Amino acid sequence: MKALYYEGDQNFSLRETELPALLPGEVRLKMAYVGVCGTDIHIYHGKMDARVKPPQIIGHEVSGVIAEVGKDVTDWKVGDPVTVRPLYPGTEVPSDNGFRHIGKNLKFIGIDTPGGMQEYWNVPAFTLHKLPDKLSLKIGALIEPLAVACHDIRLSNLKAGENVVVLGGGPIGLLIAMVARSKGARVLVSEVNESRLGFIRSLGFETVNPLTMDLIANVDHFTDHALADIVFEVSGAQPAVSVMTQLCRIRGRIVMVAIHPEPRQVDLFQFFWKEIQLLGARVYEPEDFDEAIQLASSGNLPLKELITETAPLSEALRVFQTIDQNPAGMKYILDCQ
Question: N- to C-terminal Cα distance for the chain?
């Protein structure tokens, strides 16, 4: 079979490789599609080589069909269309507080272990979620990032009618905006890329470019002076962190979605003065995948429009280069067959 290996130094190779043995508790997937995630871009740039250890197959936003079922697997059958929740919880430690999905010994499948950018992939059966027959496998590859958005919204305790500001209009930020709107929120998206802003507006969202417009004044106007009930920080940028507390109303909530590897300057006085809550949101839980599948199947979210390009595995390097050169793009999908 063919498998795409990240070789380090911004390079990939498509190799012929042997099918690994199917272990008890595993299923073998005939892979359909794999989405390119922001984390995959970090890997491509060599920022995670110590963790990924090239050469390695990466990719975790996936869809496929079960091709073979291993020993002790009873709940799945050949032909089932599925997606993968790529978390392998390790041994629990006391500080995990019962949340092994983000625990100390968690292994992220497709980062810490081989991922889905290959023709066939062996995965633990407990990671699978069944896709409805009516849902296309291409949209199935968007379930993982959509589950991220569902998790972020669930932890925010969003209620219908609330004002939401999303800082960062990339794929995850836009999915958060979609899910929030589907639950009855009023949503404003802040983004600095004008091409992305045009696309986001075409989907019916209010937008603001904080480089050319006064973000605080726009949020004040959008909310009729109430300010935001919830701010989602998805940009990963210091300017957004600096302003997020000023966008919140009294007892508002800020959900930290972006990864900030370095310490940031934060206006802590605003947390005290307005009794703001700051919530961290990382990955997802099974119920978030279930909700994502239900939302995708409903047809109420414009997910198809999110896909910028679909390309074969053989063109993966070009796709990664294109993402670097075209920050206006949204989701790039690799066809594994």
Answer: 10
Q: Which of 17, 42, 113, 310 is catalytic?
A: 42
Nearest 5°: the CA angle 40, 125, 140 is: 50
319 within domain boundaries? yes
Query: Is residue 274 in a domain?
Result: yes
- The pLDDT tens digits of the residues spanning 259-279 come to 998 999 999 999 999 999 999
- 220: containing domain: 149-280
For the entire predicted model, the pTM comes to 0.96
Same domain, 196 and 316: no
Give the phi and the psi of residue 124 in degrees, each rounded to 5.
Answer: -65, 140
Q: What CATH number corresponds to the domain at position 240?
A: 3.40.50.720
Give the DSSP per-residue string, 76-105: --TT-EEEE--EE-----GGGTT-GGGSTT
Q: Within a domain: residue 291?
A: no
Question: Does residue 101 carry a catalytic annotation?
Answer: no
Pairing outcome for strands 120-124 and 128-130: unpaired
Is position 42 annotated as part of the catalytic site? yes
